[in-house]
Write a structure and sequence with these properties.
heterodimer, A: 9-stranded mixed β-sheet, B: mainly alpha
Chain lengths: ~575, ~300
């Protein structure tokens, strides 16, 4: 008998204006020790199905099924005691955002220990000792200290490890991982996925991996369930799904993994569209000691030089905290730099007053990651898109509206959307509106700050396509900020890699992927999930200290520079620069 | 933490001085004086003598410095309307009923309000929630003098169970305290409900359920503790604010408390008493906010423990 068996599960939510059918009659089963991947886009019902398995859905959800059994218990008929046994002991869950998944007012140790104590009669001391052992099993080195930490004191990656330790605490028979790495950096994602595979083998658990990312699926599971709009499109062994997809939707999903790249025309002869010279940002931080306050500097961005040639796309890549967004914001003068110069189209805009800057803003625009909060909820789409024209006093109101409607079509939305509001649109549609608003003034430079990272894979591919198309049409120069190297690969002409506020490598995209020089670039590339289960592999991960130790070395003869123990950017090939130590 | 408290105490002192300045000069900005002709028909010479005796002929800043110097020595002067005693004596006499009324009112109303708010949040969109929300809204929107009158009408006039007014014996306390308790009850119920609902919707509650914790433990240990963080900043100041009682409730039930003096001291230009009352309120609120900030830091590890170690 399978460990998990779901037959004809239907879930609907009653809302104002009718019912939403989130899951429409799906069936699947998971055997002991097996790993099943459920892949689908947001709203496909993949998370809802697994929440139904543990009866975690809110009271507004209507659940019906022929049968839902977990570990031999009929979940739909389970009483309080059964549920308490099912949750945590038969099945444990890990969630998407580890930052919000812990109760902020209790220590990590307390939260793991209380899980153990709620399932077994042990003393607090024993429970804490066990929690420490669990933290060691998830490769947390200073486990004893971590027990006494509060969630806000730990990074996302550490918290997700602690969350896994907590899930393991009652030796569950199945581990349900609901997008466990979506909120994490690429390098951390690779570590967490490998850890999940490792503990699954060690504890002999079954695994249900819920994700929108086919790469995660390729890395972790044996069998795949493809969901779309509350229904199972296709299921089968992972290799078969990747090699011989039966359903059209599966093929679309897979197609979004395959990327083609055409370089943009570029225009090397003319002055660069955007040039950042020694741009840096330091924040003052307060340190309190007694009655006195001292100030220190936090260097978000060390002096960086980035050149965005006319009519081309440059990718700015790095993990959270690397300073890439700050750099983009400074380039737009939305954050004031501490030092350095910003040249847009050859004009130094670093010290322009707000009045002088206003006319320059026409040639520099930005698109943000979170399209929902970037669009005014009280304005119609036409108003939103036409607002830049209004601000710069271009044309009559009628002309502005006409132009906005034209742009709506140009970004692939019907004109009839003009009177709608942002909340009526999907994430991809909202991002299209944001792009239209940014481009209606005909800017020369566009900063795109992670415009696709909140989107589903198929939508992401569409937005990338749109940006590429508009870039070619308008001769735009785009600074594309992303944490995701695989997105960058299909879009940009060259890549700048940032790490801890510094540029560590910059090179044409092909060179970065074929011949990465800096250890951090290599780590980033290595962390990209496989695009086919055949390619999955064990990875070794470097700590920050290892990265420093592996900083490349070049001799005086190779570089023509004086020897220097401090790493500096060294040109090693045309347009390829890497941070390295120059030795004799 | 100790330095934090010390720093806050310094800022309390500054606040206190600024507020006392504003009050003092506003008080004297009201036209007229304590010995105006229509109140006290005395000759001009006598009036001048009186003013000189009380130091009211001095420039304002001299009067202010003198008064505050007295305050530093716990000397709040002599009330003009009752020259037989000092302001301190008057206050300690009149404050007792106000303290009992406000204190018992909030001690009864606050816990009931919190329980009501919890019940509403945990049974969202059921009749319990609707009943609690209706009660809370009524309690907040109906002025306290209307509820006082209703209470008197029902329990004193119609049912004749309780005396309508006065203070002497404990059975006379019941109606005014009930009337007063409705205010914190309604406020606390509303705040508690929304804070609990906010917490219940946070992702970690789902995680706690998925861990297999009992619902009781989730609510009483996790949800309550998290909801308490935003609530202390509202509740503590309110709690201490009540120590001055309610002018309206005291007037409706003829309680011989502080309330009446707030009005009479302003009307009669009774500067020492007015100043003392205002300083007292300022002081209580300063302490209340200080306490609530300290408690907030204590129960919130993000403040108490700080960032990455």
């Amino acid at each position: 008998m399978p460990l998990v068996e779901i037959q004809d599960l239907k879930v609907s939510f009653s809302q104002y204006g009718g019912e939403i059918h989130a899951v429409r009659g799906i069936s699947f089963s998971v055997n002991e020790g097996e790993s099943l991947g459920i892949v689908g886009e947001s709203g496909s019902g993949k998370s809802v199905s697994c929440s139904a398995l543990l009866r975690l859905l809110p009271a507004t959800a209507k659940v019906s099924a022929k049968s839902i059994t977990l570990d031999g218990v009929d979940v739909l008929k389970a009483n309080k005691e059964d549920l308490a046994r099912l949750r945590g002991r038969s099945a444990a869950m890990i969630f998407q955002d580890p930052m919000t998944a812990f109760d902020p007012v209790f220590t990590i140790g307390h939260q793991i220990a209380e899980t153990i104590q709620s399932h077994r009669k042990v003393s607090k001391r024993e429970a804490l000792a066990e929690a420490e052992q669990l933290l060691l099993r998830v490769e947390i080195k200073n486990a004893k200290d971590i027990l006494t930490y509060y969630p806000h004191q730990l990074s996302g990656g550490m918290l997700q490890r602690a969350m896994i330790a907590m899930a393991l605490s009652c030796r569950p028979k199945v581990l349900i991982a609901d997008e466990p790495t979506t909120a994490l950096d690429v390098t951390i994602q690779a570590q967490i996925l490998q850890l999940i595979k490792k503990v699954q083998a060690e504890f002999g658990m079954a695994l249900i991996m819920i994700t929108h990312d086919l790469g995660v699926i390729a890395e972790t599971v044996d069998r795949v369930l493809v969901m779309y709009n509350g229904e199972v499109m296709e299921q089968g062994p992972v290799q078969q799904i990747f090699d011989a997809p039966q359903h059209a939707y599966t093929r679309t999903l897979l197609a979004s993994l395959q990327t083609t790249f055409e370089p943009s025309r570029g225009d090397g002869s003319a002055a660069p569209a955007l040039e950042l010279r020694g741009l840096a940002k330091a924040y003052r931080i307060k340190r309190r000691s007694g009655f006195f306050t001292s100030y220190g500097d936090f260097h978000a961005v060390r002096p960086v030089d980035i050149t965005l040639p006319r009519n081309s796309i440059v990718g700015l890549v790095g993990e959270s905290g690397s300073g890439k967004t700050t750099t983009g914001m400074m380039a737009m003068r939305l954050t004031e730099p501490s030092s350095g110069q910003i040249l847009v189209d050859g004009v130094d805009i670093t010290s322009l007053t707000p009045d002088q800057l206003k006319s320059h803003r026409r040639s520099m625009q930005i698109v943000f990651q979170d399209s929902y909060s970037a669009l005014d909820p009280m304005m119609t789409l036409t108003q939103i898109i036409a607002e830049p024209l209004h601000i710069h006093g271009i044309g009559t109101t009628r002309e502005q509206t006409e132009k906005a409607l034209g742009w709506l079509e140009r970004v692939g939305l019907p004109r009839s959307f003009g009177n709608r509001y942002a909340h009526e649109l999907s994430g991809g549609q909202r991002q299209r509106v944001a792009i239209a608003r940014a481009l209606i003034l005909g800017p020369k430079v566009l900063v795109a700050d992670e415009p696709t990272s909140a989107l589903d894979v198929t939508v992401k591919a569409q937005i990338i396509g749109l940006l590429k198309e508009l870039q070619a049409e308008m001769g735009l120069s785009i600074l594309f900020i992303s944490h995701d190297l695989s997105t960058v690969k299909s879009l940009t002409d060259s890549v700048v890699v940032m790490y801890r506020g510094r540029v560590v490598e910059q090179a044409p995209t092909s060179a970065i992927f074929a011949d990465p020089q800096h250890p951090y670039t290599r780590a980033l590339l290595d962390a990209i999930p496989a695009s086919n289960p055949r390619d999955k592999r064990e990875r070794t991960f470097l700590a920050a200290a290892d990265l420093e130790a592996q900083t490349p070395r070049y001799t005086v003869i190779q570089t023509g520079l004086a020897p220097n123990a401090t790493p500096q950017l060294v040109t090693i090939a045309p347009n390829h620069r890497v941070e390295a130590i120059v030795t004799t | 933490m100790i330095f934090y408290i010390l720093r806050r105490l310094v800022s309390v002192a500054v606040t206190f001085i600024v507020v006392s300045l504003i009050i003092f000069f506003m008080m004297h900005a009201i036209p007229g004086g304590p010995f105006d002709a229509n109140d006290m028909p005395v000759s001009a010479a006598v009036r001048e003598k009186l003013m000189a005796n009380l130091g009211l002929d001095q420039p304002l800043w001299v009067q202010y410095t003198r008064y505050m110097w007295g305050v530093l020595h716990f000397d709040f002067g002599v009330p003009y309307q009752s020259p037989g005693e000092t302001v301190t004596q008057l206050l300690s006499r009149a404050w007792v009923p106000s303290l009992v009324l406000g204190g018992l009112g909030v001690l009864i109303g606050a816990p009931l309000g919190i329980l009501l708010g919890m019940a509403a949040a945990l049974n969202r969109n059921t009749w319990i929630d609707y009943l609690a929300s209706t009660l809370a809204t009524l309690g907040l929107t109906i002025p306290v003098f209307v509820t006082s009158m209703l209470l008197i009408l029902v329990f004193a006039v119609w049912l004749n169970w309780l005396p309508a007014s006065g203070w002497g014996k404990p059975e006379r306390w019941i109606l005014p305290i009930t009337a007063y308790a409705l205010i914190p009850l309604a406020t606390y119920a509303r705040y508690t409900r929304s804070a609990m609902l906010d917490t219940l919707n946070r992702p970690f509650v789902t995680v706690l359920r998925a861990k297999g914790l009992s619902e009781r433990r989730i609510v009483f240990q996790h949800v309550l503790r998290n909801s308490a963080i935003p609530l202390v900043t509202v509740f503590l100041p309110m709690f201490i604010g009540t120590a001055t009682g309610s002018i309206f409730v005291e007037a409706m039930f003829r309680v011989p408390g502080l309330g009446a003096y707030f009005v009479s001291s302003i009307e009669g230009r009774d500067y020492p008493l007015e100043m003392a009352l205002m300083l007292m309120i300022t002081f209580m609120y300063c302490i209340a906010y200080l306490l609530s900030d300290i408690v907030y830091a204590l129960i919130n590890p993000r403040i108490r423990v700080g960032g990455t170690p």
